[in-house]
Amino acid sequence: MVLSKRVARFNKVATNRVLGKAAPRLPGLAMVVHQGRTSGRRYETPVNVFGGPDNYVIALTYGPDADWVRNVLAAGGCEIVSKGETIRLTDPRVVHDEARTDMPKRARFLLARFGVSDFLHLRRAD
Q1: Is 84 exposed, middle or buried (0-12, 13-18, 19+ CB in 10 A)?
Q2: How far apart are the C-alpha atoms of 89 and 117, rounded to whole Å?
Q3: In angstroms, rounded to a whole number, what is the distance separating the alpha carbons of residues 56 and 119?
Q4: What is the pLDDT of residues 8-63, one digit of tens each?
Q5: Which whole-number Å values give the CA distances from 82 to 25, 40, 110, in the listed order?
């Protein structure tokens, strides 16, 4: 059970606008910068990001079919802004992991409560 479409719509309209200002500066959060598949428009989506400095994992709390995930997969990568730094990421792949092995222990508990078991793995492009 990932978060519902209703929650996603609310977050897109309300929460993301507030969190979007803080996400690039807070530890554990980042802003994914991606381009629309058909519109070509630039989008920014706040996410929880884990890992680094070369490998990054993002929990897919709305599932692997979220528009931003499909945009990143289609483009073959994205940028994230984290702690004031812009990082180019490449080689996106969705990984289904019921054990949440790539997550810190605290995050595993919360992700399990929400039924999140899909993750987007990316690596730093240098």
Answers
A1: exposed
A2: 21
A3: 10
A4: 454 454 455 555 555 555 567 899 999 999 999 999 998 989 987 899 999 999 89
A5: 6, 23, 22
